[in-house]
Amino acid sequence: MAANIITLSRVVIAFIALALFGSNFYGQALAFLLTIIVIYMDALDGYVARKLNIASDLGALLDITGDRIVENIYWVYFAAAGVISFWMPVIVITRGFLTDSLRSIAFAEGKTAFGDKTMMQSAFTQFLVSSRFSRGLYGIGKAIIFCYLGGLIALRGAVGQFSLALPPDLLPTLDLVGQIVVYVVVAMCVIRGIPVLWDGRVYLLEKRYPKSVRKEP
């Protein structure tokens, strides 16, 4: 229960942070700090569940749902703010719908996205999708880019509000670095999604073509 409360709380805090990004510099600075807290809570809920020995399949599913909401609203906001391309959230959200649909089917049949009952069928796809290394690397990537883009918005707010004199090439350079990191993180998102679609194809086939029908000549 405690871990689920943390998951739900981080979703609420994420919405507050994005609302503050649209205000003045002080609100944007607070939004930047709240974004860091949201990212920290992403790791905290899992830690609490393991520490209190209250981890469950439902909790894991709720954690993925919370992650997806937070991830998607940040991508959408940064695109709406003109910080990233419109196509970045389109790709991420499309990937999320596809993988989460398959995971929901698998969950109904007793399989989970991660853990001992994972829906992934080979050691290689488990490594790409559900290993701590893969999940940690992708999580770090999202943490970096969300904080980076949030910090960039706050910096632009400071320049506008306080008329800061920055080197002329600084902001364009920071934008370029941000775009590079965005493409890397989105590429990681797609790469981690492909194995889910591949291993999850059996659930689609079983639902559309029952085994008793598929075996007929």
UniProtKB/TrEMBL annotation:
Its EC number is 2.7.8.-. Keywords: Membrane, Transferase, Transmembrane, Transmembrane helix. The chain crosses the membrane at residues 12-41, 74-98, 136-156, 176-198. It comes from Eiseniibacteriota bacterium. PROSITE patterns: CDP_ALCOHOL_P_TRANSF. Gene3D superfamilies: 1.20.120.1760. Belongs to the CDP-alcohol phosphatidyltransferase class-I family. InterPro entries: CDP-OH_P_trans, CDP-OH_PTrfase_TM_dom, CDP_ALCOHOL_P_TRANSF_CS. This is CDP-alcohol phosphatidyltransferase family protein. GO terms for molecular function: transferase activity.
